Amino acid sequence: MHVSADDPAPAYVQLERQVRVAVADTLLRPGDRLPSIRALAHRLSLSPNTVARAYATLAREGVIVARAGGGSEIAPTESLDRPALTRLRHERLQTLARQVAVRGLALGLEPSDIVQAVTRELAAHGRPVPVASASLPSLGQAEAPLLSARNRLRGTVSSLRVGDVLAEVVVDLPPDGQVVAAITRTSLERLGLMIGSSVSVYAKASELTLGR
To answer: Is residue 176 part of a domain?
Structure first.
């Protein structure tokens, strides 16, 4: 914890805020010990009464509890005011978003550039933003062909393996492609597939459907 001279808030308010934020961000977890009042006051060059005031407020809010033998620790999970902590996290997020928007626009960037930069950062941290269909150009009348000829691949069955319920069908696609599909044995018999049969492969998103 620290106290900033540039922050207009009183020192005890700064300490309270830092503990709440650390708990909301799970940097401090239930059972984690806090520095004693005297130790923290000495480290930050504050009056012990200032630190005591911050700790007392946090204790009244249920964020911290007294430890047996002295000192304080983060309250157990069931005692924490989770809705309040969630609100705090969203307030922090709004502040960060405002800073990014204001600084990005001050640099002369377009809003789309700012959004794309944040999107890339999220993707780089393994949390890509799902693409909203509303933001993509419409297919219009070109949508229907996607379900027919455009996604239809013609090939020849080159291998079959049949089980009690499923069948594995290997289809050679010209010039040198190949698709392996798993279908039900009922579908295999209905289509009358055998090695050498001509077959159509219909690709629907991640699903492949066989037909004659």
So the answer is: yes
3-class DSSP state for residue 72?
Answer: strand
The length of the chain is 212
Question: Smallest Cα–Cα separation from 45: which of 6, 11, 8, 13?
Answer: 11
- Do 74 and 89 lie in a common domain? no
Residues 6+ apart with CB under 8 A from 210: 169, 171, 181, 183, 187, 191, 193, 199, 200, 201, 202
Collapse the DSSP code of 170 into the 3-class scheme (helix H, G, I; strand E, B; otherwise coil) and give the result.
strand
Q: What is the pLDDT of residues 104-126, one digit of tens each?
A: 899 998 888 888 888 888 888 78
**Structural domain contains residue 51:** yes
Q: Would you say the pTM of this structure is higher than 0.85?
A: no
CA distances from 114 to 117, 119, 189 (A): 5, 9, 56
The answer for residues whose C-beta is within 8 angstroms of residue 42's C-beta and 6 or more apart is none
